[in-house]
Structures are given as structure tokens and as C-alpha cells.
Design brief:
This protein is an alpha/beta fold. The protein has 13 helices and 16 strands. The strands form 2 sheets. Strands 1-16-15-2-3-4-5-6-7 form a 9-stranded mixed β-sheet, with no helix packed on it. α5 crosses α7.
Length: about 425
């Protein structure tokens, strides 16, 4: 894997043009010319004479002037028929305008290249996937975490909201005005909170989640917004796959849940959202990336058992998909999205050894109060030889993928 570092203010373009831009300021010489007394008198005489001749000429040619400036109105030109040449020119201008708009809204990336952007949204998770075919998938949306009940004077009238202040403006700035899919790994606020603004301001083709609700008002509002905007809801279950284009497939390996509705047609309430996180393996442009949400150690162990006894592969065959993982000691992936921001509740030694990831990405807020990432998790990642990338130290992390090769760049330079 190759690594490149860049500290530009805007991290959107993944391909940089070489060369310098120079600002050249040209000053034209100029001055004020003050005429002498005699010169001014002669000029005034010539001016008076010239003015008389101009008035005489205008009076003679007035009929021609009046015909040229007569107000005809729009109706006059409405009776004129367009020639074939004019019709072809109008059509050509419309095509050029449409092509220009299409190019302006196109995300800059070389053909056949996929891009994964781990966004810097503080303490939380949000990842933007752009496939080689130009499909846009947003995994989680971050969110502002509120700690318990606060006094009224502590509550801001205009609270900072990650979705409205960071995620949505960032998507629009990068020319993304439509999302082919939104994947919510689980209903915790630091993953789901920012998606409210996303659903309200950006058209979304499909919404995927673990099929449960946290029972909290903010998450219920998010689901209601999806229904009101006629966004199809998909309850993800182990064994499902999603292929947005020919070079990209998402294989969902967790959760293994029963999505039967409660009485009254309501979604089941899960108090263990971390355990029930959506986990999927992304195969794109010849590379593999594992997304784990906030899954805990128990969920990791359950999946390892299912891989070894073959029940995970059987779940994909039931849905007509052909996908399986090696039941041996290792099944290497290129990138591991570390679970739960590097918390000690996840990323067990057996889990990390099985996936044997070349690179590991941890999304966490700088100086967060949780102590993420945990030092023990970092030691275990280093023990398996994973290159570690952290949003709290490096800012946004972008991976450009083509033909199985991954180029990595980060926004910030780590302090020595």
C-alpha cells in the first residue's frame, strides 16, 4: 500500500496537477494632463462648433434613428419563424449546458476507481463510499452526543449539529446531491444523529439499518422522516448482498436477527444496539474492506464460530448469493474499520488475527472523554502488523482504490 500526505485546506481532489500558479499584477501608467490657458480656449471653441454640427446631423438623420429604437415588444419577435440553422444552434447550446452541469456535479475520480472517505466528524462515525460506477453510499452520519439532563441555562438555543453543520455541507461541496444508499450500522446517536439532516436535505434512494429501533424519540423521528419522504427501508440481515455496480458488492455478515414486527406493526426495540450493529464486507475495485459499526466482543466471537462451522456461508446460499469466507485461521482483508472507535469492548485478539488486515482505520474525536482508542487495542493492531490510521490525529482519511491497489492520503500531519 502506498501512502501520500497532503495538507491542503480542501481534501476533495485525489489527483493533483503539478506546477505553480503565479499572480502577476500589471500596472498601466497613467496621469492627469492639465491644458494651458490658450489651449483650453481653443478646445472650447472647437467643442462649440462640433456640438452644432452634431445637432444638425442628428436632426437630418432622425427618421433613421427613430426606426432603429422603436419599442417592438416580445410579440413582434414571436411572429418570426426560426430558421433550421437557429433551431440547430439552440439544440446545441442546450446540449452543451446539460453536459456542463453534468460535469460540474461529477465527483472527480479516474475511471474504474473507487474512493472511500472516512470523514472527520469528531467523536462518531461517518464514511462516504463512491464506487467506480459513480454510486454514492453513506455509512452512518455522526451526531452530537448529549450527556444526561442539563440545566436549561446550559442548553444552547442553536445547538451544534454534526449532520447540518458538517456532513451535509461537505457532501454538497463535493458535488454529491443524491445518495444511492444510506447504511446505518445501529441507532446510537453518534452514528445516527447526523442522518436527520441528510434525509431532510439530500435525496436518498434506499435506507438500510439493522431492523430494530432504540425506542428513543430522535431515532423514531429519523425513521418517520424516511417514511414521509418515501425512502424504502431495508432491514439488513446476515446473508444479504447489495451490488450498486459491476465492480462493487457489499456482503452483510451481521446481524443475525429476527425482524418480525411487534403487535401494532412496530419495529422490535433492541437495547443492545452495539451488539446488533450492521457488519459488512465491501469488495470494490479489487480490494476488500470490513465495516464493523460498534460491534462488541461477543458479536465478534459469534461470527468467528459461524465462519468456522460454515453457517455463515449457508446463510448466503439461502438468499441465492455465492459468498463464503475461509474457515481456516486467517482470511486477510485490506482494510479494517475498527469497531466502536477503538474501544476495549471490541477488537479481540482472535478477531484481529483472523482478518489480518493490512490497514486499520479508527474514527474518534480528538481528546474525547472516552479514552478512545484504547491502548490495548492499538497494541493488538500493531501485533498483527496493521498500519493504523486515526481521524483524531490525521483528520479525514481518503483511500483511492483501483485494480486492488490502495492509495491513502490524510488531511493533517501527525505531531511527532
Amino acid at each position: 500500500m502506498q501512502q501520500a500526505m497532503n495538507v491542503e485546506a480542501d481534501t476533495v481532489p485525489l489527483v493533483h496537477a503539478s506546477g505553480e500558479r503565479r499572480l502577476v499584477e500589471t500596472v498601466q501608467p497613467g496621469g492627469i494632463i492639465t491644458p494651458t490657458k490658450n489651449q483650453g480656449r481653443n478646445d472650447q471653441a472647437r467643442s462649440n462648433h462640433s456640438g452644432s454640427m452634431t445637432a444638425l446631423s442628428a436632426s437630418i438623420a432622425w427618421p433613421e434613428y427613430t426606426s432603429a429604437f422603436t419599442a417592438r415588444g416580445a410579440g413582434y419577435y414571436g411572429s418570426e419563424r426560426m430558421t433550421l440553422f437557429h433551431k440547430w444552434m439552440c439544440g446545441l447550446l442546450i446540449l452543451i449546458l446539460a453536459a456542463g452541469l453534468g460535469w460540474a456535479y461529477r465527483t472527480p475520480q479516474p475511471p474504474g476507481t473507487g474512493v472511500v472517505q472516512f470523514l472527520d466528524i469528531g467523536q462518531g462515525d461517518s464514511t462516504l463510499i463512491t464506487t467506480p460506477g459513480g454510486k454514492h453510499i453513506l455509512v452512518d452520519g455522526g451526531g452530537t452526543v448529549h450527556f444526561g439532563n442539563q440545566e436549561s441555562w446550559r442548553i444552547r438555543r442553536d445547538p451544534y449539529e454534526v449532520g447540518a453543520k458538517v456532513v451535509v455541507p461537505l457532501l454538497k461541496k463535493r458535488g454529491i446531491h443524491r445518495l444511492d444508499a444510506v447504511i446505518l450500522t445501529h441507532a446510537d446517536q453518534d452514528h445516527a444523529g447526523g442522518l436527520q439532516a441528510v434525509l431532510e436535505q439530500i435525496p436518498v434512494e434506499r435506507f438500510m439499518f439493522n431492523g430494530t429501533t432504540s425506542g428513543k424519540d430522535n431515532f423514531e423521528k429519523l425513521l418517520d422522516t424516511a417514511v414521509e419522504r418515501h425512502i424504502p427501508l431495508y432491514a439488513i440481515q446476515q446473508g444479504m448482498s447489495y451490488a450498486p455496480d459491476a465492480d462493487t458488492t457489499l456482503h452483510f455478515i451481521s446481524p443475525d436477527l429476527d425482524h418480525s414486527l411487534n403487535e401494532g406493526g412496530r419495529l422490535p426495540v433492541s437495547e443492545h444496539q452495539n451488539h446488533d450493529s450492521v457488519v459488512f464486507l465491501l469488495d470494490m475495485a479489487g480490494a476488500s474492506l470490513l465495516f464493523t459499526g460498534d460491534m462488541d466482543a461477543a458479536a465478534e466471537q459469534n461470527l468467528l464460530y459461524m465462519i468456522q462451522d460454515g453457517s455463515l456461508a449457508a446463510s448466503f446460499k439461502q438468499d441465492g448469493n455465492s459468498f463464503s469466507l475461509s474457515s481456516s485461521t486467517q482470511a486477510a482483508v485490506d482494510v479494517l474499520k475498527v469497531a466502536h472507535h477503538g474501544s476495549k469492548t471490541s477488537s479481540t485478539e482472535a478477531w484481529l488475527q483472523y482478518w489480518n488486515a493490512q490497514s486499520a482505520v479508527i474514527s474518534a474525536g480528538a481528546n474525547n472523554t472516552y479514552g478512545h482508542p484504547n491502548p490495548g487495542v492499538l497494541e493488538r493492531l500493531e501485533a498483527v502488523g496493521s498500519q493504523i490510521y486515526r481521524t483524531d490525529q490525521m483528520g479525514e482519511i481518503q483511500m483511492r482504490i483501483k485494480d486492488g491497489k490502495i492509495d491513502v492520503r490524510q488531511k493533517l500531519i501527525m505531531d511527532e
